[in-house]
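Hi, can you check this record?
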Amino acid sequence: MHATQRESIILDLLAEHGFVSFRDIEAKLDGSPATIRRDLERLDEEGKIIRVRGGAKSVSSSDGQAKADLKLFGTPFHENVVLNTQQKKAIGQAAAQLCNAGEGIMIDGGSTTLQMCPFLEGLNLQVLTNSLHIVQALGGQPGTRVLIPGGAVFPEQNIVLPLFGEDLTPAFHAPKLFMGAAALSARGLMQDDVVLVASERRFMERAEEVIVLADASKFESSSGNVVCPLNEIDVLVTDARLGDKDASTIEAAGIRLIIADA
């Protein structure tokens, strides 16, 4: 692949996403890591991109904020939220029962974690979340205090994510983190977009216990960016459609398995 073709692909990725990781560039281009680094250095010197740790960002970004049309890879929230709704509500209710009154928790954005919200009322929780849907759902609950990290708003998922290697998450430590998944397999928990992966890793570093909410359909795919191996997950809440083989994989990893009745 000629240098001009590689550079065109890099610029197209940045135009669409605002930030792209070196790993994602490698996956898209036919070139060695050394060649790609030279391409990025040249584009940076020409003022067409901005080199940052782990990748590059668009020159249209300002003060760490991405342009308004940043997009995440993966299924948009409005499409995902109408899938497997009965199972997701049951999973959300079962997950909420793991919370203790008055404690601080973290809830990562997602269509399944959103289903926890109605069952948290009255527990007087302090909740750190990156999801504006969850902020709205918890906002009317007396006694529930909601915190959000800094960053850019990604409209497809309506979540707030820090960009370009920044860490804009409050200095918050919690006994429990509730998070979703695009896919689960023996490889681990996966998400579609590397920006989301980085944000979830920051959440995980601040939690004592990682609790994953995923309906059984998430075991039908094994593609994506790995957030963590299975042995970093403490609890999985899923539904009764989970197959015996997948259940054995989960239990072999030392994960506590909770089956929610839909």
